[in-house]
Amino acid sequence: MSDTQIFVKDADWLDWHPNPSVPAFQVPAGAVDAHCHVFGPGNEFPFAPERKYTPCDASREQLFALRDFLGFERNVVVQATCHGADNSALLDVLAHSDDRARGVVTVTPDVTEYELARMHELGVRGVRFNYVKRLVDPKPDEYYRTIVDKIRPLGWHVVIYFEPADLREKWDFFVSLNIPIAIDHMGRPDVSKPVDNAEFELLLRFMRENPDVWCKVSCPDRLSHGPIRGGAPLYADVVPFAKTIVEEFSDRVLWGTDWPHPNMKKEMPDDGILVDYVPSIATTAILQQKLLVNNPTTLYWS
């Protein structure tokens, strides 16, 4: 924390939905929102000087209120790029969660064993590597490899955010890490293409050949090519992609709201509608239980 600063959100920033609908789908007991964020509040947890966007505030109290409103029991909070490698806001969530939250942080290679141990005690279980160039400036492979070597003794995993071209480019490096990997948002497939397109087949091959790779079937609102409101409530163009992953890799899939939905440009999703999307990609009670309860519990609370 530092002296109070005043941050002005980007002029085109869309704030998170203030009044989401009540989901018709009741999530199973013990359900986990396995991908969400907090932003600041900026006057308490300042945004990083090197950030590529300035968001609105989205506090832990507001995150917990949404969790309860949607019927979830727990959260996995992922470090937002606007906070860089200062994980103070995320760690504050964990410290106030009564063991109902876990964290995925961003760290630099000079992170100390003491810092990692403190994070682990609070509930951190992974680090995030972001390759999406419009959000961050990716670092050289050895930068990330040094971090992996430091977190390996803790039993953590790596969350990787990339786009289709990045997987082909970084395949050998990702495999060489020899550590569990969770892919954010299905690797952002182009859902305007047929589901059997070469880029998506490469993602499926990556999961088939590497049994320690997990996948978040989240963010249909980011991936849909539908017009405003046309993508909701079903996000029909995204469903075949997510459904394919859920059905083939039912023990290695996760789901999250992505609240408070950073960098949305055309429409701010209704979190209740996002919950109602789940049964279209996990079509049985068994698949829903694995997606929302068993798998995130295994990865984050075991």
From TrEMBL:
It comes from the Bacteria. Coiled coil: none annotated. It comes from Leifsonia kafniensis. InterPro entries: Amidohydro-rel (IPR006680), Aro_Compnd_Degr_Hydrolases (IPR052358), GLI/LigI (IPR047874), Metal_Hydrolase (IPR032466). Residues 32-300 form the Amidohydrolase-related domain. This is Amidohydrolase family protein. It holds the Pfam family Amidohydro_2.
